[in-house]
Amino acid sequence: MAGFGFGRFLRRRRPAAPGPGGSARPPLRCFPGWAGSLLWWPFPLDYEETALPAELVSELRDWEARWEARSSAAMGGDDADLDAGTDADVAEATEQQRQLVALATRVAEELGAGYCIELDDPDAQVPLHLPPRKLRLASSRPGSPDVVAAFERLEERLRDDLYPERNAPAPGERWYAYAPRTGAFFSPRRRGRRGKPAP
Fold first, then answer.
1. Exposure of 28 by Cβ count < 10 A (0-12 exposed, 13-18 middle, 19+ buried)?
2. Pick from 105, 104, 112, 107: nearest CA to 144
3. Of 11 and 141, which is predicted with more confidence?
4. What's the whole-model pTM score?
5. Is residue 106 located within the same domain as residue 189?
6. Which of 95, 115, 129, 193 is least surrounded, with the fewest CB atoms within 10 Å of its CB?
7. Which residues pair with 117 in a beta bridge?
8. Per-residue pLDDT, 1
9. What span, in angstroms and rounded, lies between the C-alpha atoms of 86 and 90?
């Protein structure tokens, strides 16, 4: 595996608010999940819509296929030698996560400044009952024009899902739910109270 220089990347151990000149966009999350894509923003992205280089897309798909095979074997007991608790398995999973960091670094480089990739930190020693620490990668250089243009199109199409706070009701307006069978309207209430028909 080729070495990746992090000198031109901002590497944070914990997610933080963007600093001066930082990305105000939601982070692009990178993780496996049997979705056919490792890239989530906020949903799994179709690689063809991202304009990422074919070689990188192929490597992302190969990594996910290896992860799915290993995870399926662990869950299904298909491999008698696979024991999720052994040191070798933990080391293999950590190495696999480091490979994902290398791939995410390449995605960040293609996206350039203004975008951030978030994924689990393979080097964090976190107890199992706690959520994993996150690692954020962002390039300080301009990205590939085709990839940036593709992500700008995606951002425009997914705007309502990426920025739900922008869809909040205006002053004097409110959210409600409608039950078509009964014709009842339900307004959100404080925790512990049931909705009642709206006036």
1. buried
2. 112
3. 141
4. 0.69
5. no
6. 129
7. 28, 137
8. 38
9. 6
Q: Answer for the pair 112, 141: CB distance below 8 angstroms, yes or no.
A: yes
Total domains in the chain come to 2
- Distance between CA 32 and CA 118 in Å, rounded? 13
The two three-digit tokens of residue 17, written as one number: 């608010």
CA dist., res. 2 & res. 108, Å (int): 16
Question: Regarding beta strands 177-179 and 184-186, do their DSSP bridges make them parallel or antiparallel, or are they unpaired?
Answer: antiparallel
Q: Which domain holds residue 79?
A: 9-166
Structure-token pair, residue 65:
């296929």
One-letter amino acid of 13? R
Q: How many Å apart are CA 121 and CA 63, to the nearest integer?
A: 17
In degrees rounded to 5, what are phi and psi of residue 147?
-70, -45
- What is the 8-class DSSP label of residue 29? E
Locus of tokens 């293609």: 110
